[in-house]
Amino acid sequence: MSISLPPLTRVLGGAASGKSDYAEQLVTATKRPMLYIATAQSFDAEMDDKITRHQARRGKGWRTIEAPLEAAEAFACTQENEVVLFDCATMWLSNQLFAETELGDAEGALFKAMSDCAAPVVVVSNEVGAGIVPENALARRFRQVQGELNQRIAQRADLAIAVMAGLPLALKGALPEVTP
User: How far is CA 24 from CA 58, 134, 140, 179, in A?
Assistant: First the structure.
Protein backbone atom coordinates (compact mmCIF):
# COMPACT_ATOMS: atom_id res chain seq x y z
CA MET A 1 0.00 0.00 0.00
CA SER A 2 1.33 3.45 -0.87
CA ILE A 3 0.79 6.75 0.89
CA SER A 4 0.03 10.12 -0.58
CA LEU A 5 1.97 13.18 0.53
CA PRO A 6 0.82 16.80 0.31
CA PRO A 7 2.73 19.31 -1.83
CA LEU A 8 5.08 20.25 1.03
CA THR A 9 6.05 18.18 4.06
CA ARG A 10 8.67 19.32 6.55
CA VAL A 11 10.52 16.96 8.90
CA LEU A 12 12.33 18.68 11.76
CA GLY A 13 14.52 17.24 14.48
CA GLY A 14 17.73 17.55 16.41
CA ALA A 15 21.05 15.99 15.47
CA ALA A 16 20.82 12.18 15.29
CA SER A 17 17.07 12.32 16.05
CA GLY A 18 16.11 10.01 13.17
CA LYS A 19 14.65 12.78 11.02
CA SER A 20 16.38 11.78 7.77
CA ASP A 21 15.54 8.11 8.29
CA TYR A 22 11.88 8.96 8.89
CA ALA A 23 11.78 11.31 5.88
CA GLU A 24 13.23 8.52 3.72
CA GLN A 25 10.52 6.17 4.99
CA LEU A 26 7.85 8.71 4.03
CA VAL A 27 9.27 9.14 0.54
CA THR A 28 9.72 5.40 -0.01
CA ALA A 29 6.16 4.70 1.16
CA THR A 30 4.75 6.77 -1.72
CA LYS A 31 5.97 4.09 -4.17
CA ARG A 32 6.85 6.88 -6.62
CA PRO A 33 10.23 7.43 -8.28
CA MET A 34 12.43 9.18 -5.72
CA LEU A 35 14.65 12.23 -6.17
CA TYR A 36 17.15 13.06 -3.44
CA ILE A 37 18.45 16.63 -3.45
CA ALA A 38 21.64 16.42 -1.39
CA THR A 39 23.08 19.54 0.21
CA ALA A 40 25.95 18.15 2.28
CA GLN A 41 29.54 18.87 1.32
CA SER A 42 32.41 16.84 2.66
CA PHE A 43 35.48 18.58 3.95
CA ASP A 44 36.76 15.82 6.23
CA ALA A 45 36.69 12.08 6.92
CA GLU A 46 33.88 12.36 9.46
CA MET A 47 31.56 13.96 6.89
CA ASP A 48 32.68 11.43 4.24
CA ASP A 49 31.56 8.70 6.63
CA LYS A 50 28.21 10.35 7.35
CA ILE A 51 27.44 10.79 3.65
CA THR A 52 28.41 7.18 2.96
CA ARG A 53 26.14 5.94 5.77
CA HIS A 54 23.20 7.99 4.44
CA GLN A 55 23.75 6.63 0.92
CA ALA A 56 23.96 3.03 2.17
CA ARG A 57 20.80 3.43 4.25
CA ARG A 58 18.86 4.79 1.28
CA GLY A 59 20.02 2.00 -0.99
CA LYS A 60 19.28 1.79 -4.68
CA GLY A 61 16.35 3.39 -6.44
CA TRP A 62 17.09 7.04 -5.71
CA ARG A 63 18.00 9.61 -8.33
CA THR A 64 20.39 12.05 -6.65
CA ILE A 65 21.25 15.64 -7.46
CA GLU A 66 24.02 17.17 -5.39
CA ALA A 67 23.14 20.80 -4.83
CA PRO A 68 24.97 22.31 -1.87
CA LEU A 69 24.16 25.84 -3.07
CA GLU A 70 21.88 25.53 -6.11
CA ALA A 71 18.90 23.70 -4.63
CA ALA A 72 16.43 25.90 -6.51
CA GLU A 73 17.93 24.77 -9.80
CA ALA A 74 17.76 21.12 -8.67
CA PHE A 75 14.01 21.43 -8.06
CA ALA A 76 13.63 22.50 -11.70
CA CYS A 77 14.94 19.03 -12.68
CA THR A 78 12.07 17.28 -10.93
CA GLN A 79 9.69 15.09 -12.87
CA GLU A 80 5.98 15.26 -12.04
CA ASN A 81 5.70 11.57 -11.14
CA GLU A 82 8.55 11.76 -8.61
CA VAL A 83 8.65 12.60 -4.93
CA VAL A 84 11.49 14.85 -3.75
CA LEU A 85 13.52 14.59 -0.56
CA PHE A 86 15.48 17.78 0.16
CA ASP A 87 18.04 16.81 2.80
CA CYS A 88 18.74 19.10 4.34
CA ALA A 89 17.79 22.76 4.66
CA THR A 90 20.28 23.14 7.51
CA MET A 91 23.28 22.15 5.38
CA TRP A 92 21.93 24.28 2.53
CA LEU A 93 21.75 27.29 4.86
CA SER A 94 25.25 26.62 6.23
CA ASN A 95 26.58 26.48 2.68
CA GLN A 96 24.86 29.79 1.86
CA LEU A 97 26.36 31.46 4.95
CA PHE A 98 29.89 30.24 4.20
CA ALA A 99 29.54 31.34 0.56
CA GLU A 100 28.35 34.73 1.80
CA THR A 101 25.29 34.51 -0.41
CA GLU A 102 22.51 37.07 -0.11
CA LEU A 103 20.24 34.91 2.07
CA GLY A 104 17.00 36.67 1.17
CA ASP A 105 17.53 36.08 -2.55
CA ALA A 106 18.62 32.46 -2.08
CA GLU A 107 15.69 31.70 0.21
CA GLY A 108 13.23 33.39 -2.14
CA ALA A 109 14.50 31.31 -5.06
CA LEU A 110 14.32 28.14 -2.95
CA PHE A 111 10.74 28.79 -1.83
CA LYS A 112 9.64 29.62 -5.37
CA ALA A 113 11.27 26.43 -6.68
CA MET A 114 9.57 24.30 -4.02
CA SER A 115 6.23 25.98 -4.69
CA ASP A 116 6.58 25.50 -8.46
CA CYS A 117 7.63 21.86 -8.07
CA ALA A 118 5.04 19.53 -9.61
CA ALA A 119 6.08 16.68 -7.31
CA PRO A 120 5.50 16.40 -3.55
CA VAL A 121 8.48 17.74 -1.57
CA VAL A 122 9.76 16.56 1.80
CA VAL A 123 12.19 19.00 3.47
CA VAL A 124 14.45 17.88 6.32
CA SER A 125 16.09 20.34 8.68
CA ASN A 126 17.57 20.59 12.15
CA GLU A 127 16.02 22.17 15.19
CA VAL A 128 18.93 24.21 16.52
CA GLY A 129 17.25 26.49 19.03
CA ALA A 130 16.81 24.08 21.94
CA GLY A 131 20.39 24.27 23.17
CA ILE A 132 22.52 26.84 24.92
CA VAL A 133 23.30 30.25 23.46
CA PRO A 134 26.36 29.80 21.24
CA GLU A 135 29.61 31.45 22.29
CA ASN A 136 30.54 33.08 18.97
CA ALA A 137 28.77 35.51 16.68
CA LEU A 138 28.70 33.26 13.59
CA ALA A 139 27.09 30.41 15.55
CA ARG A 140 24.53 32.79 17.06
CA ARG A 141 23.72 34.18 13.61
CA PHE A 142 23.37 30.66 12.21
CA ARG A 143 21.06 29.63 15.05
CA GLN A 144 18.91 32.71 14.46
CA VAL A 145 18.60 32.39 10.67
CA GLN A 146 18.07 28.60 10.90
CA GLY A 147 15.24 29.11 13.38
CA GLU A 148 13.67 31.72 11.11
CA LEU A 149 14.05 29.48 8.04
CA ASN A 150 12.45 26.58 9.93
CA GLN A 151 9.49 28.78 10.83
CA ARG A 152 8.98 29.94 7.24
CA ILE A 153 9.15 26.38 5.91
CA ALA A 154 6.68 25.20 8.56
CA GLN A 155 4.28 28.04 7.68
CA ARG A 156 4.29 26.94 4.02
CA ALA A 157 4.10 23.22 4.79
CA ASP A 158 0.88 21.26 4.58
CA LEU A 159 2.34 18.65 6.95
CA ALA A 160 4.95 19.43 9.62
CA ILE A 161 6.55 16.62 11.62
CA ALA A 162 9.01 16.72 14.49
CA VAL A 163 11.15 13.64 15.12
CA MET A 164 12.57 12.96 18.57
CA ALA A 165 14.37 9.72 19.49
CA GLY A 166 13.24 8.30 16.15
CA LEU A 167 9.56 8.92 16.88
CA PRO A 168 7.50 11.20 14.62
CA LEU A 169 5.15 13.76 16.10
CA ALA A 170 2.69 15.71 13.95
CA LEU A 171 2.97 19.46 14.48
CA LYS A 172 0.66 20.34 11.60
CA GLY A 173 -1.56 17.92 9.66
CA ALA A 174 -1.92 14.17 10.25
CA LEU A 175 0.88 11.62 10.23
CA PRO A 176 0.62 9.19 7.32
CA GLU A 177 0.63 5.49 8.16
CA VAL A 178 4.24 4.44 7.47
CA THR A 179 5.74 1.08 8.29
CA PRO A 180 9.54 0.94 8.55
Answer: 7, 31, 30, 12
